[in-house]
Amino acid sequence: MKDFGYLFMKRTITFKIISLLLVCLACNANITTSGSKSRPQTDIFAEGNSIDHYTTTPSPSWVPAVTPTATPIITPTDTPTPTPSPSGTAECTPTGTPTVTNTPVSPTPPITTPPIDIKKINYIEELKKLNYFRIQTKDSNLNLRTAILLFQSDHNLKVDGIWGKQSLSSLIKRMTSTQPFTYTDKITLPPGKDQWIVINKSKRILTLYKKDSVVKKYPIAVGNPPSLTPSGKFTIVNKSINPTWGGGGYAKPVKGGSPKNPLGYRWMGLSPKGGNDYGIHGTNSPYSIGTNASHGCIRMLNPCVEELFPMVKIGIEVWIGTEEELKGWGVVQEAYK
User: Fold this and answer.
1) How far apart are CA 299 and CA 282, in angstroms?
2) CATH of segment(s) 123-333
């Protein structure tokens, strides 16, 4: 009985050892099998696989099993050649960040600007940005009106000093345009190689040209009615600083240099009637600029006429006409809007 018990115990121990070995072998087999499902990160690059599936959103028909630790990090030195996602709408930018678009990307995409909310436009601030608004007097209303006048004349709008739809339209175009501002004037046959002046009675704009290019534009006042300002092709025959005003036959004369002088501080006489009846001059009534106000002369703001004065030589040609008359002479001043 003793030998039988010893033999039974020995067999039992042997069986447990064998069972334990079998369990260990099974565990090793499982570890080896699960390990084959996880590839090192370097395998993605070593096997030449595209990494776009890991950096862009995959299509529903193909979702790779990628853990957060397996996502490759792209640097500028190892950025692979981009390949489209399964949907064909994703492209990689130079930095490796995918850009999604619904339309083909042009090789030279146009420059676009964000849409503008018209209600939020502060035109006064925009006029300041464009250097039209300047504090020239203590009258804040006059400073604003002058800024509008200068903006309107530069953009070939009808000069009236009132901010309206046409002015707003031109401002929006300036704000949204991707090109530098250029004048819209078209000259078919300029009178010569030198400078010359065009006065548009319909829009109340004086333009100084050099050949077919705009040098400067200014807001003006013309006759009331405009027909009092003669139409035609004339010349400048005389110039004067601080001219004396003779009274026009209905008022007392005013000395030159006086702030009450209706001619302001500059005079450039036009050839009709010898240069003493019609001329381009300043004013003591700045609010009249942008209106039909004179007896036939061309009025300018004093700072404007003082700027123009040294650029004008005796003998320079001056064309005066309505919009239609100027077109007939090959001068087209289309509005910028």
Assistant:
1) 6
2) 2.40.440.10
